């Protein structure tokens, strides 16, 4: 009986003929009043999980959402479907909305977290009397300091648990590692929650990474590439890490006669809305933006998401690149990184201290490792999010499809691992590489590293070459990087130690590695 009602309500309001994977189970559990944590990829249809129950039960769903523009978009879309929806925020000045909300007029009532925490108890008791069917926290990763988008206001939401005693709490997010998941469950004081983790695998997305140097030659190539996408009317988002980059790329595109939208946090609201509008309506095919352009973009036919610069975390990379190919058609995510991106720890850490600082550093290292990965990118991403990927090759990423030159680097690997072993985990990569390259800098002489037998044995390769080798050895687990305060140190793993112990200076076990673009002498 309930299953039929679910299907008919879905059809009546949304016109969909069936549920997407997990939606039905999730909604059923919410109707049974179970707390739920929903972790599913962007575009998998999470919103329906809180939109349908109020229509079935005729009670209000409260939905916490971080951005007013996002709430406005959703309210508009719901109203068009004949669903009664509104939002409450400090910017909402219409007094009738408040009154109607209290008397249970709305199916879906959006609120900012600030509003939800500051609204008087009398409001909640009135609304509870007419009926609240669920309390949903959208973008729930914002609650966690370990997430990529921590927001203080989200932390206070636990106060509402005591007021909304019997209301099921539902957390929804697209990206959450185990740590973040636990944080959401604990922060919202969920009781025996049902945890739904959909697959993160977006099979229609191709993942690839390229390194670049900021110069005019690269910019010309880049613009040429973009002009090809525009010529075939493909929508593209170019995400930059800084406003300066956004402006530069925008300018280069304009100079090449390519119409584009521009979007960043320092633009006036009206200008941002205009950019958003022309992009959504296909009046321009390219959007150059910082990550301020994002949450709630529901454009199904974005074919390319390009990151110009290494993102601050894989969580945010996955979310941003996930805006590509929502309609299921093959689409492409390229990440362009510059070595300098890896030195930006201080820029990203800002005032953060303690745990928060550590979390930021860990995220940066993970994003960097993704860039330097020489094996399947999809496997790496999925395993980062705790999902098992059975095969070693997905066949739809650069490392799986573009053939790379390989060569036996056993001797070089031996030298580097042995040298890092001599440094005993106290240094980053520069020190052991300088030793191998025979440097006589002050810090080498002070530490008497010039007396090591390895000193100078790696002269015939550049330091970039050695770094590229080191990153491969890290990704294959021979070396480990860790973060001390803001410094990265490198040490030899158990696998690396085994390699050393089965080697002699004259003979090492065979180790075939890739000759990457970075290995230039
Ligand atoms: P998420 O919040 O997980 O990023 P959305 O809720 O925005 O995803 O849904 C993504 C798209 O999928 C939307 O355009 C939505 O209308 C569509 N959608 C959701 N559920 C269904 C369904 N059962 N059948 C068809 N389309 C659906
Ligand atoms: Zn792959």
TrEMBL record:
Residues covered by the Helicase C-terminal domain: 218-380
Domain Helicase ATP-binding as annotated: residue spans: 27-194
One cellular component (GO) term of this entry: cytoplasm
Primary site of residence: nucleus
Compartments in which it is found: Nucleus
Enzyme Commission number: 5.6.2.4
Keywords for the protein's UniProt record, in alphabetical order: ATP-binding, DNA-binding, Helicase, Hydrolase, Isomerase, Nucleotide-binding, Nucleus
GO biological process: DNA replication; double-strand break repair via homologous recombination
Needed cofactors: Zn(2+)
Catalytic reaction(s) noted: ATP + H2O = ADP + phosphate + H(+); Couples ATP hydrolysis with the unwinding of duplex DNA by translocating in the 3'-5' direction
Single GO term (MF): ATP binding
Family of this protein: Belongs to the helicase family. RecQ subfamily.
The protein's name in its UniProt record: ATP-dependent DNA helicase
Source organism of this protein record: Vitis rotundifolia (Muscadine grape)
Covered range of the whole protein: 1 to 521 of 918
